[in-house]
Amino acid sequence: MILLNGTELAKKRFLKLKTKAEACANKAKLVGILIGDEPSSHIYVGKKKQACQKLGVLCDILYLDKATDQKKVLQIIEKLNQDSSVTGILLQLPMPKHLDSLKLINSISSKKDVEGLTSQNMGLLVQKSNSIAPCTAKAICNILNDYDIKIKGSHVVVIGRSLIVGLPTSILLQQQDASVSLCHSYTKNLKTIVQQADIVIVSVGKKYFLDKTYFKKNAVVLDVGISRENDKLYGDVCPDGLENILSAYSPVPGGVGPMTIQTLIENLIFLQQSL
Ligand SMILES: NC(=O)c1ccc[n+]([C@@H]2O[C@H](COP(=O)([O-])OP(=O)(O)OC[C@H]3O[C@@H](n4cnc5c(N)ncnc54)[C@H](OP(=O)(O)O)[C@@H]3O)[C@@H](O)[C@H]2O)c1
Among 81, 148, 188, 259, which residue's CB has the most CB atoms within a 10 Å radius? Predict the structure, then answer.
């Protein structure tokens, strides 16, 4: 079984990105908005800032109180939309329940939508005419392509249909000529469907949701889900015994996560170069 090592791959892609990033240094600026005190979100935002700093890309994080109301967040986004020194705006998800996250996402200018989540950029993605795609979905495709895993004609099962992972991943992979089954909590006979897959992408967020009995021989599995227990991270897939069944596997941690951060910076540089 090949271990799909997202940490190593992200390092290689960062090296390739360096020249482009240098050309944008002190020009490209990411502004992240983090609302509330969810510990995982603080860790993810910190990692994104670190990645920017390594490449000399500017990054500001706005930490907002968890009680901040919708109107206030909209005002902040509007100000950032108008600020010519800001290249990309990132709204860290999930956000407190009283906020309408979709409305907030859609208030970001599509030209500053570094995560490719606005209705404008999602629409263009469906039409296959956009270079900005949601970071995790693009990261998943980059892992498959960089490891030369055959997508064309493959049966891909994506579990989870979120706007940030499952849905855009299913779109990107069918655009690369895969036959995609998009599964969710109402899917019947999930195990039977997963057992037919050449490639499985799982983004549910439940520790060890799948185990080795779900996979056919030589399947490729990319684990996206992250669960935290006593400061330890667990994926959606139990790793026990996978090595005798799968042909390739991306673990948690060290798989899709680092590649997602790399893709975010790639998107930011793309936005800067598109100005
Ligand atoms: N590695 C990374 O870079 C990265 C990036 C983003 C997210 N994540 C992690 O990925 C996980 C999922 O996040 P997300 O934002 O994609 O999804 P999400 O919004 O948390 O939704 C979870 C998805 O799982 C589906 N689901 C729940 N129970 C299921 C079941 N029993 N059978 C089949 N499907 C089921 C849900 O179906 P319904 O739609 O029917 O409710 C939903 O589509 C989280 O742990 C998150 O931390 C990791």
Answer: 259
Total length of the chain: 275
Q: What is the pLDDT of residues 130-165, one digit of tens each?
A: 779 999 999 999 999 999 999 999 999 999 999 999
Residue 242 DSSP symbol: G
State which of 203, 207, 227, 256 you would mutate to test the pocket of ligand 1, scoring each by most atoms of that ligand within 8 A of its C-beta.
203
Do 247 and 147 share a structural domain? yes
Task: Give the three-state DSSP class for 217.
Answer: coil
Residue 124 lies in a domain: no
Q: Is residue 256 within 6 Å of ligand 1 at its C-beta?
A: yes
Range of the domain at 253: 135-257
Number of domains making up the chain:
2
Residue 221: which CATH number? 3.40.50.720
Closest by Cα among 138, 37, 28, 134 to 85: 28
Distance (Å, rounded) from C-alpha 157 to C-alpha 149?
15
Closest CA to 91 of 71, 114, 75, 68: 114
Q: Around Cβ 172, how many Cβ atoms within 10 Å?
A: 21
How far apart (Å, rounded) are the C-alpha atoms in residues 22 and 3?
31
Strand, coil or helix: what is 138?
helix
Residue at token pair 């570094």: 114
Greatest CA separation for the chain: 55
Classify residue 115: in a domain, yes or no. no
Pocket test for ligand 1, best of 41, 185, 236 (most atoms within 8 A of CB): 185
Per-residue pLDDT tens over the stretch 50-62: 999 988 899 999 9
Q: How many C-alpha atoms does 176 have within 13 Å on its Cβ side?
A: 20
